[in-house]
Amino acid sequence: MVPLRARDSTLGFAQFIRHRNPYPFDDEDLLLAQEIAVRVAVAGDRARRYTHARATALTLQRILLPQHTAEQSAVEIACRSPPAEAQAGVGGDWYDVMPSC
Are residues 48 and 77 in the same domain? Predict the structure, then answer.
């Protein structure tokens, strides 16, 4: 077993086993397992940090958008904030202001 560590935190463990090979692991195998574990841990940590940062940004975006438009006697206001496309990662806020009749 090799620990998966990133930024002074243990994320889990990786267990390596042999299938149909009776020979025990040697020092070179251990070195390779440790290298694999480091790379997996860093990739997992980056994915976790990205997910957290994205969730925070989406929450902040949702909080900053107006929930209701203010009633105006001279104009009518309509707004919409469609969600971002998954691949583009950007959305847009649309406002339309028209004179009241």
Answer: no
